[in-house]
Amino acid sequence: MGSDSDRDPDIESESEGKVSRHHSQSSCPTEDEEESSLHLGPKVSLKEHLEKDKDDESLRRWKEQLIGSVDASAVEENQEPDVKILSLAIVSHGRPDILLPIPEENPKGLWFTLKEGSLYHLKFTIKVSNDIVCGLKYTNTVWKTGIKVDSSKEMLGTFSPQADPYTQEMPQETTPAGIFARGQYTARSKFVDDDNKCYLDINYTFDIQKDWTH
């Protein structure tokens, strides 16, 4: 993987046309400041929260507003959330979606092909079990010939466990176009929560060509 100083001006042109992303920054308290002002009690599992005061109708409705309607009998005693990324769909207007089940291991060979200069967005299906997952975020880094050409991070939010998978759509992007943009890319995608627990870390390769292959 090359550094910024190793970039070839011709390769720089490969990233032309991709969506630019801007993230606002704000000052945050340090860990010491947070610890001095915040004292947390022992963690209580979601199942305990649901069972507590379950006969109080007003409290039950209030909890449903906060975490959604959750079946207490389907929630495990285990306090750790379980998040599974089930599938990835590549959505582009005017053509069928490319549906890719998430494999247990890194895909071997070419995983998919994108058309140059096309608008598209990614759509994931996500299953959450056991407990609430807080601050789930998606990061993606792309390289071409060993040089990083794109990097993005999207905050997805907080999800409570439920029987049906969530559908999460990423912002729309545009693939680069031109002779320098076409070819094979490598990428790494991750899903991580606020506690830095990683639920998916996948490496794969894809192509950008003059047209879709299927």
Which descriptors apply to this entry?
214 residues; mainly beta; 5-stranded antiparallel sheet; 5-stranded mixed sheet; 10 strands; 39% strand; Ig_E-set; Rab GDP dissociation inhibitor alpha
What can you see in these coordinates?
This protein has 214 residues and is mostly beta strands. 13% of the residues lie in helices and 39% in strands. The protein is built from four helices and ten strands, in the order ααααββββββββββ. The chain has helices spanning 9-12, 31-37, 46-51, 57-67; strands at 82-91, 98-101, 110-115, 119-129, 133-144, 147-159, 166-169, 173-174, 183-192, 198-209. The strands form two sheets. Strands 1, 2, 4, 7 and 8 form a five-stranded antiparallel β-sheet that branches. Strands 3-10-9-5-6 form a five-stranded mixed β-sheet, with no helix packed on it. The radius of gyration is 21 Å and the shape is elongated. It starts with 8 loop residues before the first helix and ends in a 5-residue tail after the last strand. It is found in: Cytoplasm. This is Rab GDP dissociation inhibitor alpha.
Estimated radius of gyration? 21 Å
Helix percentage: 10-25%
Low-confidence stretches: 1-41
- The average pLDDT score comes to 78
What's the short story on this structure?
The protein is mainly beta. It has 4 helices and 10 strands.
